Amino acid sequence: MFPVDRRRRILQRVAEQQTIKIGELARELGVSEMTIRRDIGRLEQDGFLRHTYGGATAHITKSIELAFNARALEHAAEKRLIGMRAAEDLAATPVLYVGPGTTTEQFSLFLSRATGTQVVTGSLPVASLLGSRPAHVVALGGTVREEELACVGPIATASLARYRADVAVIGAAGVSARFGITELEDDLAEVNRVAIGASSRLVVLADGSKIGTDAHAVVAPASAISTLVTSAWAPAAELGRLRAEGVEVIIATAARRVGRARQPEGAGT
């Protein structure tokens, strides 16, 4: 297994269990404990982990724990794969807008940021994750929604007017060719609408349960989506209709993410 694959495996284990034991992981991957310690040191240097006695824990603050609601437990493996794939593809983006949501939180968990880059977000969990790394993070401010810990309202939308982004990365309650991107709440939808208008490209992260479904608040038409990253069990017919609207569809799979690692339940090829 290549070093990058080992490190992704370590991050996967931390994302699943919130902690790892060096000895156990060394035996599982067939390498020395010193090799795992070096991997953890590199991940800690990049801001992904916090080293503890005998292992490592996720560099996750209380805001992430507060955001760990029932929706975060739904389709967790698929969201993790989607977030990791999108993070790989967008790591070199100079300016990102990252919207609120459990899938965008996974994206932020695995996003490697470099000094001098900028992230604008209305999500307090996302700001907390990325703010501990070498990146310039701007939190919008405004009224905070209790469940998502998302900044909404006129202060948040006014703050967005001060910035532009190369790529907007958002989640969605529903994605369909007919109604495009939809959200459950209009205040969340409005912040994403404004962010999309100030971005050069739109990437939507949505697991298969969201594809072909619609909520009541329309964010943007399907034609506005540059890329959709979704899971293998998304309805093929609906994906075909989205492609006909000009959407690039990427299926996130375990194979790209972790080499020989076991593919999580629910993920396909």
Radius of gyration: 18 Å
Topology, number of strands: 15
Give the distance, in angstroms, between the N- and C-terminal Cα atoms: 20 Å
Largest sheet: 7 strands, parallel
Helical percentage = 40-55%
Mean pLDDT level: 82
Order of helices and strands: HEHHEEHHHEHEHEEEHEEEHEEEHEH
Structural class: alpha/beta
Question: How much strand?
Answer: 15-25%
Spatial order of strands in the largest sheet: 6-5-4-9-12-14-15
CATH architecture of the largest domain: 3-Layer(aba) Sandwich
Indicate the topology.
Elements (H helix, E strand, L loop, with lengths): L2 H15 L1 E3 H8 L3 H13 L3 E4 L2 E4 L3 H5 L3 H4 L2 H15 L4 E4 L3 H9 L7 E4 L2 H8 L4 E4 L3 E3 L4 E3 L1 H7 L4 E6 L3 E3 L3 E4 L2 H12 L1 E7 L11 E4 L6 E4 L5 H9 L3 E4 L2 H5 L11
Parallel strand pairs: 4-5, 4-9, 5-6, 9-12, 12-14, 14-15
Antiparallel strand pairs: 1-3, 2-3, 7-8, 10-11, 11-13
Helix pairs in contact: 1-3, 2-3, 6-7, 7-8
Explain what the structure shows.
Helix content is 41%, strand content 23%. By secondary structure, it is α/β, with parallel strands linked by helices. It folds into 2 domains: 3-59, Arc Repressor Mutant, subunit A; 64-258, Rossmann fold (3-Layer(aba) Sandwich), CATH 3.40.50. Helix 2 crosses helix 3, helix 6 packs across helix 7 and helix 7 runs parallel beside helix 8. The protein starts with a helix and ends in an 11-residue tail after the last helix.
